[in-house]
Amino acid sequence: MKQFLTPLLSIGCLLNSGMMTAGIVDFHNDNVLGTSMHLRIDANDQEAKLAEQAALAEIHRLEKIYSSYDSESELMQIRRGVISTLSPEMHTMVSLCQQWQKELPMAFSCRLGSVIEAWNEAEKKQERPDRKAIRALARKALYSEYTLSDAEIPKDFSWEFSAIAKGYIIDQAIAQARKAAPAANALTLEIGGDIRQWQKPGSKAWAISLANPNQLDDSQQNSLGNIQLNNQAIAYSGHQARSRKIGRRQFSHILQARDGWPRDFPHSVVVIAPTATKADAIATALSTMDVDKALDWVEQTKQVEALLISEDGRQFASSAWHSSDHEDSKAELASANIRFALPKIRSGNYRKPYVALWIENKKRKVVKNLLLLGDSERWMSENSVWWRRQGRKTPTLLDVMARPTRRAGEYQLQWSGRDDFGKAVAAGQYQLIIEAAREHGGHEKISIPFELGKPIKQTEKGQKEIQYIELELRSPLVGNAEIAAN
């Protein structure tokens, strides 16, 4: 079986070697799910070896069921019509897929087998697939009324489990490893970059180095930092390492459930969740969603955090993502509350304004894009200051972070003290700027200068398009110089 996801974590940097103790045993195996497996366990040598054997046995057993690369797997025999009754393991997998398709109906699917086969054939022939035909296959699968209660093989689509299978296999493998090593204190299993970690209560979690999915670098010189998982899992969904090349064009291997086509501006995703199954399914789904919709969904979902990374490296994190990042605990990051309001304008020709909110340094370089409201390039460019300094240079920002403007009223948001690329901003002189422009209306810009490192609470009133903006910088920044203020 080829890998479900390309390896994104360097084994050498996967687990912080500075935290090793005499009881820790490491195992490395190649050619596991088409990639490599790393097992770290805090146990005696005998139990550690039994745990490795149990994990590998479970992985190989489930691979023979779910693989779309092994012609003799249960999945492929179902596709050929050789098998007409589902095994208990296949029934469990299909049930999981049904649950996640219900949870994320337009973003998650295990029904794209025929669509993927069509893409594979197109890549082999080096002919761009017919988009209408691909869409028809995807929608036939999406709207099929098949249920498990039918107790038969679906006729409207073919199953394909790459959106969830690796995570599920990791969970089952770590469960078998724990049974084989009941006296173990901690255990971490990594396959192709996805990780499940378990430790007994009171045991200290191992530090994990996060690879940047947009920069394949085994040396980890460009990592996203270190985190500590506490009986949790982490999964990646990335477009960079695995893509289809047809002619001169590159197409992501991750397809949208609604039409079977990859996104035009794909982003990579890192998800932390209680289980590898959940992390894998969510990471796959979020990678096909718009950034704002993906983060809104995460914020409403308990025990899940996510980081989305655009093609140019800009980061969009859920609210509690950086709470897992222990590197910045050495320095106190800025913490700002920002409020602004759009006035009620009585006009028969009223159009909701396009708004840009950002932080720039003393050289007028945009440090952090905080909010974009309105996704029309034509009218967003009327915010001439933001467009000149940022928008025209990176027009894809409108695709990845613009949200629709609500009606007049108050907006609230927070700034964590990080720039667009996730780095902590250094103390220095900055400005918070809001700019609003309205079709058939006016244009207005307000700025609040501040010194990062000193508390401030300041409100500025607008004249027409902006009612007011308020900045409250509560926590000073101490000793952080990752980014020069100039």
From TrEMBL:
Keywords: FAD, Flavoprotein, Lipoprotein, Magnesium, Metal-binding, Signal, Transferase. PANTHER family: FAD:PROTEIN FMN TRANSFERASE (PTHR30040:SF2), THIAMINE BIOSYNTHESIS LIPOPROTEIN APBE (PTHR30040). It is an enzyme of class 2 (transferase). One of its GO terms (molecular function) is metal ion binding. This is FAD:protein FMN transferase. Belongs to the ApbE family. InterPro entries: ApbE (IPR024932), ApbE-like_sf (IPR003374), DUF2271 (IPR014469). The lineage of its organism: Bacteria, Pseudomonadati, Pseudomonadota, Gammaproteobacteria, Cellvibrionales. The keyword Metal-binding applies. It comes from the Bacteria. It catalyses: L-threonyl-[protein] + FAD = FMN-L-threonyl-[protein] + AMP + H(+). Its cofactor is Mg(2+). Residues 1-22 form the signal peptide. Gene3D superfamilies: 2.60.40.4070, ApbE-like domains (3.10.520.10). Its EC number is 2.7.1.180. SUPFAM superfamilies: ApbE-like.
